[in-house]
């Protein structure tokens, strides 16, 4: 049993990998029922494709916060961290693919006096 914690935007994924047949359960649901788009499933399982371990591990994950995209990114990060715990041989390939680093981009907060994070109110001369 290997564990990894993944984060992306405001989402946090606690991932547990166990040797198995490739079954993926996220928040008590199958991955195909949890994520609405196939591209999100591809994104989340990218670590298995790079390390050529598809179907070797069962994934059980709890994901909190954010939307679908952030949750898929957090799941990918958690899977990659758990894979690195399972075998240190995977780290060079995963690092070369850019999956080890946390994607820290978060929505910028709104500032007072502005309409959004940087958008100022329209200037009126008169």
Architecture overview:
By secondary structure, the protein is α+β, with helices and mostly antiparallel strands. The chain has a single domain (2-96), classed as Ribosomal Protein S5, domain 2. It has five helices and five strands, in the order ββββαααβαα. It has helices at residues 31-34, 38-44, 46-51, 68-86, 91-96, and strands spanning 2-8, 11-19, 24-26, 29-30, 57-64. Strands 1-2-5-3-4 form a five-stranded mixed beta sheet. The protein is elongated and about 70 Å long. The relative contact order is 0.23. This is 30S ribosomal protein S9. Keywords: Ribonucleoprotein, Ribosomal protein. Belongs to the universal ribosomal protein uS9 family. One of its GO terms (molecular function) is RNA binding.
Beta-sheet strand percentage? 15-25%
CATH architecture: 2-Layer Sandwich
Helix content: 25-40%
- Major β-sheet annotation: 5 strands, mixed
- Helix/strand order, N-terminal first: EEEEHHHEHH
**Which fold name fills CATH's third level, the topology?**
Ribosomal Protein S5, domain 2
Radius of gyration: 18 Å
Q: What is the strand tally?
A: 5
GO biological process, one term: translation
Family: Belongs to the universal ribosomal protein uS9 family.
Protein name: 30S ribosomal protein S9
Keywords: Ribonucleoprotein, Ribosomal protein
What's the layout of helices and strands?
Blueprint: E1 2-8, E2 11-19, E3 24-26, E4 29-30, H1 31-34, H2 38-44, H3 46-51, E5 57-64, H4 68-86, H5 91-96
Parallel strand pairs: 3-5
Antiparallel strand pairs: 1-2, 2-5, 3-4
Helix pairs in contact: 2-4
